[in-house]
DNA-binding response regulator, NarL/FixJ family, contains REC and HTH domains
Amino acid sequence: MTVRLVIVDDHPVVRDGLRGMFVEQADLEIVGEAGDGERGLAVAERERPDVVLTDLRMPGLAGAEFIRLLAERVPSARVLVLTTYDGDDNVLPAVAAGAIGYLLKDSPREEVFRAVRAAAVGETVLSPAVAARVLNQVRAPAPAELTEREHTVLGLVARGSTNKEAAAALFISETTVKTHLAHIYAKLGVSDRAAAVATAFSRGLLP
């Protein structure tokens, strides 16, 4: 079985390096590549690969949103993340969005080859550091539920609203918005807006 692969990474040097690696593997064939998520989607829709090997942080469409759209448009393609970022705000949203694997760019090439082959047949592959983070998330105690108002505030924050804008939209004071955010941070176990949004997405609290 030949695994058909698309590479999505905004660094040409990385794409060149990966191409050089995979050319040595008779059963792994690169059928397309792209430097951002928009082009990656187009290439994947055209080529219908078995695996899409992608970075997370790229200009324009990237990260969990790219993975979600890819799952919608090319559901047969397995998404394998290859990145330098292993923080919870990167790992958890990517896995929640549908990535079947998550490797770091310092992984040995043989590990990358094995991961691509495993992803192609539907097996989950996580680097040790990433696996530990996912396991910790699973083992974490059930979070307290957000109130309806807290959920609304979080939704506004996720869409980019400032405290002032959220207050105006809900006809409440900025102080009240800050209080709601403090409660949200405590319930989600985070310390800032970005982490709150990422965690909420990973737990399915936001669409």
